[in-house]
Amino acid sequence: MLIPRHIIGPKYGNRVTVKQIARYLTGTGNTSKPRSRLAFAFDIDGVLLRGKNPLPAAKEALSILDGNNKLGLKIPFILLTNGGGVSEEERCRKLSSQLGVQIHPDQFIQAHTVLKSIVHNYRDVPVLVLGGKSDTLRRVAEGYGFQKVYTTLDILAWNPSIWPFHDLTQEEKASVRPTDFSKVQFGAIFVFHDPRNWALDTQIMCDVIQGIIWGSYKTNHTRKHVDLVFCNPDLIWQSDFEAPRMGQGAFRVAFQAVFQSLTGSTYPYIQFGKPTEATYNFAEMMLKHRLQGVSKPLLYMVGDNPESDIAGANAAGWKSILVHTGVYDPHRGPPSHQPTYQAEDVAEAVRLALDQEFC
Ligand code: G3P
Ligand code: MG
Q1: Is 110 touching ligand 1 by the criterion CB < 6 Å?
Q2: Residue 14 near residue 23 (C-beta atoms within 8 A)
Q3: Ligand 1, atom 8: nearest CA belongs to which residue?
Q4: Helix or strand (DSSP H, E) at 26
Q5: Which residues form a coiled coil (predicted)?
Q6: Of all residues in the chain, what percent carry a pLDDT higher than 90?
Q7: For residue 251, how far is its CA from the centre of ligand 2 (angstroms)?
Q8: Beta-sheet pairing, 319-323 with 298-303
């Protein structure tokens, strides 16, 4: 069957066969159930949500991907955020109700999800997990396979004089795991999500790294190196407040400034989250899985933050679309990292990519 030009656009001259379209769309000649070569990774804050509120264009964008497009094609997508703080399952439940579309954990990556790929190095090593509310992230870390997980609230409960400016609330007291930390030698500190108490967490990170907790400080026991891992480098992010807010990256800068003032040097750390290669490799693996192995996949990242979304996608060799509903404000000049395209919002971004790739 030949298809007229105005249906399929200029790319194919006047007439082409369904088989040629199927080959282009799916990388296979199979016309029975065309599958898309195109797939999207969507950032969340500033693209789909502002704070707790879905952005108006979000539902339209997801409905286009759900087959409401001129090719009637279902187009795979994942959500790729530097946010975090709860389990993937819990966040997907919340997102599904906010966006009105079922979001499944195997299409969702948050800042600390990538730690699943390194947990084998720390399975029974005592680790300190920072961020989020009370001990929510202890449970998330144990869900990933970490077996000896402590929080800064556990340490404060063990010795309140370690930070005299915070009294544990009832909720926090209920979350702590009584432990004698003079017997715990930490192997790593993981900053999963934005700490709620920067001062307490900064004090205890400095103490753990310098062996003050463990007592080698006094006795000069050989101090074991403590790995320091941050999961989200964002200095700023877009919430429902009109101006961008400080992110986990700002906490890292603050910690390093204090540590340097105390010790004369900053402390080496490992960074995950967008734009890091580790996180984009993890995302590419998940996208290719959803594309069920079609050849020559067309991967698009749609984001609001040039530093994380666009820089990472460009470095991964994907196409990128920068939207104007979040951190990046086009009135403040060109973006720090050049996207493939720009768009007002996520729905315009999806339509633009479909037009570019299918027309
Ligand atoms: O804390 C989350 C923030 O840093 C950015 O989230 O969804 O824009 O990557 P997102
Ligand atoms: Mg964002």
Answers
A1: no
A2: no
A3: 45
A4: helix 18-26
A5: none
A6: 82
A7: 18
A8: parallel
131 within ligand 1 shell (Cβ under 6 A): no
Contact 230 CB / ligand 1 (< 6 Å): no
Q: Please tell me the predicted confidence (pLDDT) of residue 214.
A: 61
Which token pair is 79?
């959500």
Ligand 1 atom nearest residue 308's Cα = 9
Q: Where are the beta strands (DSSP E) in the chain?
A: 2-3, 16-17, 38-42, 49-50, 53-54, 77-80, 108-109, 127-130, 149-150, 188-191, 227-230, 236-237, 245-246, 270-271, 298-303, 319-323, 341-343
Residue 273 Cβ contacting ligand 1 at under 6 Å: no
Q: What is the DSSP string of 203-242?
A: HHHHHHHTTTTTTHHHH-PPPPP-EEEES---SEE--SSS
Half-sphere exposure of 325 (CA within 13 A, CB side): 27
Among the bound ligands, name the one nearest to the CA of residue 235.
1
Q: Which long-range contacts does 246-254 make (Cβ < 8 Å, 24+ apart)? A: 247/82, 247/194, 248/82, 248/111, 248/131, 248/191, 248/193, 248/194, 248/195, 248/273, 251/191, 251/194, 251/195, 251/198, 251/201, 252/191, 254/198, 254/202
Q: Give the Cα separation of 210 and 120 in Å (integer).
A: 25
Q: What is the C-alpha separation between 90 and 98, in angstroms, rounded?
A: 13
Question: Is pLDDT larger for residue 292 or for residue 123?
Answer: 123
DSSP letter for each residue of 50-116:
ETTEEPHHHHHHHHHHTT-STT-----EEEE-S--SS-HHHHHHHHHHHHTS---GGGEE-TTGGGG
Q: For residue 213, what pLDDT band results from cuts at 50, 70 and 90?
A: confident
Pairing of strands 236-237, 245-246: antiparallel
pLDDT digits (tens, 9 = 90+) for 249-297: 999 999 999 999 999 999 999 999 999 999 999 999 999 999 988 888 9
What's the rounded Cα separation, in Å, for the pair 182 and 340? 53
216: pLDDT strictly greater than 70: no
Q: Which residues surround ligand 2, an ion (CB under 5 A)?
A: 43, 45-46, 304-305
